[in-house]
Every structure is written in structure tokens, then in C-alpha cells.
Amino acid sequence: MSIADAFAPTDDRERCITLAHGSGGALMHELIHEVFVGTFGAAPPGGLEDQARLDLGGFSTGGDRLALTTDSYVVDPLFFPGADIGKLAVCGTVNDLAVGGAQPRYLSCGMIIEEGLPVAVLQRVAASMKQAADAAEVAIVTGDTKVVPRGAADKLFINTAGVGLIPAGIEIAAAQARPGDVLIINGHLGDHGAAIVDARGELALEHHIESDCQALNGLVAVMLAACADIHCLRDLTRGGLATVLNEFARDSGVCLRIEETAIPVRDPVRALCEILGLDPLYLANEGKLLAVVPATASAAVLAAMQAHPAGQDSRIIGEVVERPAGRVILATAFGGERLVDMLVGEQLPRIC
Amino acid sequence: MSVGVPMKYVDEFRDPQRARRLIAAIHALYPAVGRPLQLMEFCGGHTQTLLRYGIERLLPEGIEMVHGPGCPVCVLPRERVDGAIALAARPEVILATFGDAMRVPGSCQTLLQARAGGADVRMVYSPLDALLLARRHPEREVVFFALGFETTMPATALTVLQAARQGVGNFSLFCNHITTLPTLRTVLDDPDMPLDGLLAPGHVSMVVGMQPFVRVAAHYRLPIVISGFEPLDMLQSLWLLLGQLAAGRHEVENQYARVVPAAGNTPGLEAMARVFGLQAAFDWDGSVAPEASGVRMREEYAHFDAGRRFPLPGRQTTMPAPPQCEQVLMGRLHPQACRHFGSDCTPAAPMGALMVSAEGACAACYHYGDRECCA
Q1: Number of cross-chain residue pairs from A and B with Cβ atoms under 8 Å apart
Q2: Interface membership of A203 toward B (CB under 8 Å)
Q3: All domains of chain A, ordered by start, with CATH?
Q4: Which of B148, B154, B164, B162 lies closest to B302 in space, CA to CA?
Q5: pLDDT for residue A55
Q6: ipTM, 2 decimals?
């Protein structure tokens, strides 16, 4: 019998993380092996070291620059329709690499656990991370576990850092949008943000909304194969489409013009926005991106995207024009125009 | 904004083709009126629709839309936000309120900032959620920061009645409801602001019915149309207003009949009458004191009144909002004409609630680009 088992209740479902699991002692050792090493992959033959050791041979082909990124995940609830904090922690970091044109290779995983979290929950999250990592063809190669007293964190926080390789010749940047370029997104907006509002259970909706959480590196690869000269690319996370549009407009000194009727939003998400007075342009996504591509390549990029599972609902939503520089303009279905501004703070439901 | 099937009760009221027909009808009718017009949309929800859909720019040149004071958090004096923050600062209190109240500036803080500083402030979708909080936390005092015109009053009243029925002792209201008619009369009595017609608030009318506006129309000889909030609702309402003006009529027409019953919402009105009485003084950031528009809880329900259960800070500690806010609120000053607009007053650093509320005229002008030419 292991030390962890000796101190654990007999029913595994009730076994919880305690401060002792974070103390660096035997219980922590047990936990790391049981939950993380067991799930993420076999330990190297000589045993675990304090750092992952990555063969440089793997880096010498396929790119001329390393991309490195990190992100922390604190979503509440931990599990929600379509995904969970584990899948999110893998896909989010993979996507931050992918939209720079990088091919993601390795991830780290730092866990901050509130004491009292059932071990079964941690196992479920780790399994989900492994599944998402396999699907995105990245390896989780190093990690860290901390346990904090009850109340010092909310159940579970995860940080992942990711390393990827950027192929030679790929130069994607927010400052490269040029008049005449075409704006393409890969599907419906706001699913993740709406799923989280729904999953918090405060609204008791009839139709549940699934998060769009997915890795985008496969999609980006086919886009770059169709056109290596993609000008701008960013995933639409917090702040939604409106925020990324404004970032591109500001950094490129151009105007991004979008058509209201071209922007795809699922009916349940629209309904939620209508009820709460939210704007889907600002809702969070976890599997969507905005690409700015030269007009000559737009048909090829769009076709490549639509042929990929993560881009079946891709569509052109607008174009880049010169003026007013730094602004985002929405052409309304009415034939009117309005500004689409940066979001200030979080979107708050209206009163009446 | 959709590629799916049309959304029932939404998309048919946003149909661009019908909108174009209505706009053409408005242009065709306007010459029969033959003079410049100042028309007020009372409600902040209407202001939002006008700007969000770019409707103002599609109207004949002689028609000026004046944005009215119908924004529940914009009419709150700062001292009331200070009061809510003081309540939230009490260790035993959970302060529950609507999201839109969270960013409204008090004298030195907003509720969001108070929450960051450790106050227990919760966002709820309905006063019933606040009552549920009270039942879940019997060891705490749950105070609902109740605000809004008659639109939100029935729900608050029914919640108090339910709390009384269930004997919930740790629930109370910080009551900041306000009634529409005295507020409207203050606007209409302003000699500097001659109005030619009024789009009356649809959701207030859903509660109070048409009758109160019939008296207003007769007294001020003012054409009134009770309007819905979708773009086609508003265009049709404007066309109806022009029809009255062209014919020299001044009456109340109900464009929003699918929601507004002529007699209002009787059970809602009864619940309001049981819980609330009118109170006098409730001034908005300065000189304009709409007579008796404030709402007070009746003695019978005094134990649900946070204002009587907890000490509140006095008015002497309140820092007044800039005087321009009141001018804009009352429709005397267009948001862009305010010298603070977009310079030292923005949604990120607002000087008044008008710049942060979802129904604030300044916020709508700022977000939807009325601050500069789009084209």
C-alpha cells in the first residue's frame, strides 16, 4: 500500500488533495506519478529531473525561429459543455503559438490546486489535457504542482507555457493589414463566452451552448500552405472579434470594415445576447481566429479553411480600407454604419 | 447578425427592406409638417437602438432626436452610489445588484472598485436571485440595490412580498426606484427645451399602461407614441408621430401593442402599491428635483428597507458630478457638445453614469461612433 493510500479514505471518489500533497514529500511524489506522469506519458528511463531535456535535433528542421508563449487558466466552472479547464489550457496556448505561424511542439503545465479538490477531478482534468495535447500533436514535457489553503485559490488554476517553431519565410504581424486585404473568420462567434454564462447556471436556458474550444494549429497549417503571405492572424479570445479587429486597425493604421450580415452567430448565442444585452462581437471564443489575407489569395485560403474540420464555417466578413485609420466600422443590415470600439472592462448585463 | 433561420420576434423587427420602406414613408410625410422638429426618445434603450442601427442619420434633416433621461443608473445621484458602497463595505452585508450599476461612479469609487477592495458585491439578473442569496447565506445580510423606473419595480415589489411570505429576515432593499411621470414632467416644464413630440418608454408603459401618458399629451398638447425597442418599432413610431404633427393632433398612440396593454400590468401595479409609496426629495446631481419621483417603502415593509436598517453616509460627503451631466441627462446638451465628451470623460474614465451605462446617451454616442464621421 502506498503512503497516499494509507492516508486516503477507502472510497477513491472522495479522496481529496490536501496541503500535504504540495509539501514536496512522499504524498506529492505519489500524486505527481499517479496523476501527471501516468497520464501525460512515461517518465524518462533515468527518472524525473527538474527540467525537461529537449533534443535540439528536433528543432533543427522545420523552422528558423522559436516561439515561446505562456497563459494562465482560471475558468469557473472547471467543466462546461464542450470542454473543461484542461482542454482549454492546452488549446489556448497551442493557439497562441499557432497564430504566430509557429508549429507547437512542447507544453509545460503548472497546477495551483486549492486544498480539498477531489483527486478524481484532477485526474479528469489531466486526462483531458492529454487528449487535447495528442489531438494537437504537442507533448506536455514538464510541470509543477502547488497546493494552497482553502480560499487562497478557486479549486484549480493552470498555467501552460508552449514552445513552437516558426518556418522560415512566415512573417505574421498585427501591423501588416493593407487596404484591399480581406478579413476571414473560421466560424460562429461567441460560443465559448455564452457556454460559460450558461454553465454557471444562473439563467436556466432550454438549449445548452457548447464551447468552441479547439486547437487551431492544424487549421493554420493548411491556411499557410494555401498562402504563406498571411498578413495578420490572431485567435479571438477574451474581448472577442471586436478587440482583435481594433488591434489590427490600430497597429496597421488602417480601417477594418465588416458587414453585419456576414458575421455568423448561432441562434442560442444570439438569444442569450438578446436577453442579457450583450454584443456577440465582444464575447469570448476559444477556437476562432481572424485572418487578414491579400485579396488575391483569399479564395484559396477560404477554400482551404472550409475543407478543414476547424474551419468548415469559415467566411469572409469584410475588408481593409484606408480611412478612418485606426478604426473599425460595421456596415449595418440597414445600410447604416457604426463604429465598433474596444471593450472597456467586462460586458455587464443591462437592467431593463 | 445571423446566418441561421430568422429569430422569431427579433429579426422581423429588424428587416432592412421594411426599414427602407418606413424611412421612405417618413421622408414623404415630413414636408407635410414643414418645420424643424425636436423629438425626444425618453428611454435610454431607445437611444441605444437609434445609434446602434444608425437610424438618426437616415431621418430627414429637420428632425433632431433629443436623448431623454430614461436611464435607471444615470438618474441616480452620486450620494446613492456612495450609500450602496457604504452598505457593501459592512462585513455582514452581501450587496446584490444589476450588472449595469457596477461601473457607475460614486464620489470616489464604483461598486466594481469596492468589490476589488474586498466588499462582497454580487451581480444578479433578478431581485429573486438576491432573495435566493439571502436564503443560502442566513448568517449574512443580503441587501438588494434596487433601481430602475416602473419597468423593474414590480419584480422588486414581488420579491419583497415573497420575502415577507417566506419570513426571510436577512434580506432588505436599498430602494432607489424612481417613477417616470414626475421625471418626464420636469423635462416638459423646461422652457428652454421645447419638444414637438415624444417617444414614450415601452417597458414602463407595459407596467403603467397608456393612461398616464394620455394626461401628459392633453396637458402639454404633445403628440406621444409608446414605442417598442427594435429599429422597425422606432421607425414606425416616428412615422406615427409625424402623422400626428402633420394633422395637428396630440394624442397617445400605442405602437408597442404587442407588449403594452392599454391598462398596464394590473397585478404588477397592485404589488407596487402594496410595497411602495412615493417620497419627495430625490434629486439628481444638482438643481433639478423632479417632484416626488422617488419611491419609498411603506411602513408595513420597513424591516425590508436597508435605508432604515443600516446607517448611511450623509450627503455632505458627496462630491457632485460635473454640471454638464445633468444638462445632457435632461436633453438640453447633446453628448458631443459637452466639453468633457471623449476627452477627459470616456468609458474607461467616466465622469458620470451617462458614459458607462448600457442605456447612457454618452456611452451610446461614444461606442457607436457618433463622436466623429464614419464615412
Answers
A1: 112
A2: yes
A3: 3-166 (3.30.1330.10), 182-339 (3.90.650.10)
A4: B164
A5: 83
A6: 0.78
